[in-house]
Amino acid sequence: MLAGLFLRGYKVYKNVKFLPFFDCDHENLNLFIGPNGVGKSSILEALDTFFNNAKWTISLGSQHAYVAPIFLIEKKKVEHFSTTSKEYIEKISAFLWNVKLADNKLVYSTISDFLEFKDKIRSTCEQDYYLLLLSFTPHLRDISFATFDAEIKKTVLNLTFDEENNLKKNEQKPLNKLFTEVHDLYTYIYIPTETNIANFLRLESKDMQELTDRRIIDNIDVILTNKSVPQENGEISEKKNILDLINEKLQPYVAEVERIIQQIDIEYRFQAEGTAKLTTKDISRQIINAFYSKRKLQKDGKSIADLSSGERKKALIDITYSFLSQEDRGAQEKEIILAIDEPEASLDMSIRYDQFERIEKLAKDHQIFIATHWYGSLPIIQQGIIHHIEIGEDGLPVIRLYNSRYYFEDRKNDPNDIYFKSFSDLSQSILSSIRSKEMNWIIVEGPEDKNYLDYYLKGQITNLKILPVGGSGSVKLLYQHMSIPFSVKSDSSTFKGRVFCLVDTDNQGLDIKDSDSKYGKLRIRRFQLGTYSGTQEIKLVKINNAVFIPTEIEDVLVPNQFYLALKKTIEASNDENVKLAFSYFKYDDDSKFSFVKGDLSILLPQSNVERNYKSDKKLIIDFIDRNKFLISHNYCKMNKEVEPAWIGDIIKLFNQDGYKENNSLPSEKDKLDSTIINQLTEELSESMEKSEKLDIDSEIKTPKNDVVPVAETIVPSETISPPTIVTSDVTTENLSPPPVTNIG
Description:
About 40% of the residues lie in helices and about 15% in strands.
């Protein structure tokens, strides 16, 4: 994979710039976002220059320009390299893994950025991967090592130079060989905004062939080299195969043509390029090309060239996804790197989410680079690196990097309008999707919430999309952005689907007065532990419900299943302290919920051991907080035997209107056109942006008087007022706190 990139003198990147392409989790998706002209596309184009020899655009006045990817190569992938190449890779990788700032005379921020990145990934990568830096400048025809060039060539590889300090020609040949062998490990497919999509989508095109499953090529090779082909006399040859037979038929024929033409002039001859005989590689590609050329992709009987620009763009992602996402897909002939400039261009707002969702799925197995203007993609991307680019005061690009999982917590240096614009764009995409078809949405805080809901709700709600947006504050903001259109009857009546927002109950609350839109198609709820007719239950309650006990999704799952998922995650970890602490607890068979904290904990101390159980449990709780996604993954791999009652409550919210539908024509008061609605939405966004009360850098806010925190309060059972019995209304406010001590 590509671990990073050094740029110098390429378009707007006049000075040396280092860009890391993943964090410790080896994320495959890199998203470059920002205004026009800041250098987003330049990064994708620079890689195209390196891999595909695309046109160079050197910054005016720049010297020593280069595009130098940082490769992280599995050691087993270079076993077939030449002896010299393997020797060079060993030496260069050892140098790069061990180089320190004091070792390099070029002490500037770019070097320190690279060294910081290298040190961050070293513990998890050095044993199994080579770290390699390569640069090629076409106009100089020179293989180099970017900012480390002189040190690597002279000190690490001990290459020789002439009197003018130029590398001797005999030293350049093995460097060229190294470049070729590394280069051949990768296929870089770049799709610019202005690409001829119809030509790209021709199955016989080079780019489409690069997406072909390696097993298809291998199977053709087997057929070509199978040694049981009948001869012309009908006998079976045990030594001949199709490839040998083709070569045997063609070689004498070409030799005879050459003999005759040399009778005319002895200077004529057929000069073989490479090996004179056909190989499986020569033929298999031609077979695939011929097969694909007989098939043209169409949609609704129309040629791709006849579709609208938006439909063509969508078809591009769809066909790429279809090639690369087959469940039983084998390995690629080469490692595919896919780069797309503005995948949202010309697309209807309603399908932009689907486009980016498919791109993120592709990134599970392939490295993807995206340049985009659409800020609505920021809350969607859950596993990747976000590069926010803008032009600084010196006229050069300034790039801020974020792990997408923590973007909305870490984005303190970004302008506030970016935060609001991302949710404004996303909310418009959601609203457009449910206008165009019966699409239903659940908005949740994190990817682990999505995992649990996917696990239980799959197939239970029509056309369901579950979107994690990075915290309760982000859920709240998205809810507020959509609240005006959902509350206007003339607009709400056009919505064919529903949106449901779900948050945890934290130590502090969200300041939301209305948890339901006027016409019931937009709702927000939180988990709450309460007592119903003397029985403790988990319910979905409105945000301003008076009962307020911290309750997270990890607390409301099937208890035994959650315990087993937690146990599996701890046992697979390298944290010996947590393993030891966990061994002093057993599962409480009487558990009704999956709390780990407090008196309702699923963990029961072993009575025959003297331990500081409070300290042990804190270690376990901290481990859960760090590994929520992995625990959810292990939980959802188990067979479903039972499901929490609140899952049925969510299904009911989508299957009932919650109000009596009025089919009469809207009154004049309700006849607000889209211009007024948009104006109100913009005013809401501006007021939220300017409001000093809205703390956009925090996920949650201190509750007002209508929310009473009681998490740290001991509630004796005799103080609980008799509750109203609840049977079907999942949004009831008649909850009383249970008789528990320190749930938080």
